[in-house]
């Protein structure tokens, strides 16, 4: 990610209070000194990061549909998963694609990395493009229930309009796919 550029806007952390430590996230409240010398509180969600994959097979994007508890409904998304502590994104991406879809890729290319919500969280997602896919059997986690399908670009845009596909990583992947089809190189 980009180097730090504007020291005049830095906030200095004076103290940190741990509020919650879970399997996926931790939450803390930081007391910070603002650039003008005043103090303020910042609620921060810590996350180990994640990988996501734009996997195209026969000009169709591989997606998974699964129930998302925070939304109270199913959601159509690209395959993705969290990084284990200390795990490199390039190691995790192949694992996640195989686990969720059964597909393996001859090559993976990092398109770009992005923060999901930097106003309160440090979660970063590394979005990859999978190439030369081979079908196989999925290896879902015990608590993972999903359906794998392949959709066209037009179907993806229809699902975005319908609200079936509404998470940022998937919408970004669809936009990247569209750029790729137009001959552009997203993320470069």
TrEMBL record:
GO terms for biological process: nucleoside phosphate metabolic process; ribose phosphate metabolic process. Its cofactor is Mg(2+). A motif (Nudix box) lies at residues 81-103. This is ADP-ribose pyrophosphatase. Homodimer. Mg(2+) 1 binds at residues 80, 96, 144. Signal peptide: none annotated. SUPFAM superfamilies: Nudix. Residues 45-180 form the Nudix hydrolase domain. GO terms for molecular function: metal ion binding; pyrophosphatase activity. Keywords: Hydrolase, Magnesium, Metal-binding. Belongs to the Nudix hydrolase family. Pfam families: NUDIX (PF00293). GO terms for cellular component: cytosol. Gene3D superfamilies: Nucleoside Triphosphate Pyrophosphohydrolase. Mg(2+) 2 binds at residue 100.
């Amino acid at each position: 990610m980009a180097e730090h550029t504007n020291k005049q806007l830095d906030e200095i952390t004076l103290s940190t209070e741990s509020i919650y430590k879970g399997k996926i996230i931790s939450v803390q409240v930081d007391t910070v000194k603002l650039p003008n010398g005043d103090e303020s509180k910042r609620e921060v969600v810590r996350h180990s990061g994640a990988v996501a994959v734009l996997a195209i097979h026969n000009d169709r994007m591989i997606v998974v549909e699964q129930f998302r508890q925070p939304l109270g409904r199913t959601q159509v998304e690209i395959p993705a998963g969290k990084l284990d502590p200390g795990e490199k994104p390039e190691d995790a991406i192949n694992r996640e694609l195989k686990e969720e879809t059964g597909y393996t890729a001859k090559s993976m290319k990092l398109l770009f990395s992005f923060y999901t919500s930097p106003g309160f969280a440090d979660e970063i997602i590394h979005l990859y493009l999978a190439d030369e896919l081979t079908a196989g059997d999925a290896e879902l986690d015990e608590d993972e229930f999903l359906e794998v399908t392949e959709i066209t670009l037009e179907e993806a845009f229809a699902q975005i309009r319908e609200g079936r596909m509404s998470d940022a990583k998937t919408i970004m992947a669809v936009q990247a796919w569209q750029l790729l089809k137009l001959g552009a190189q997203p993320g470069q």
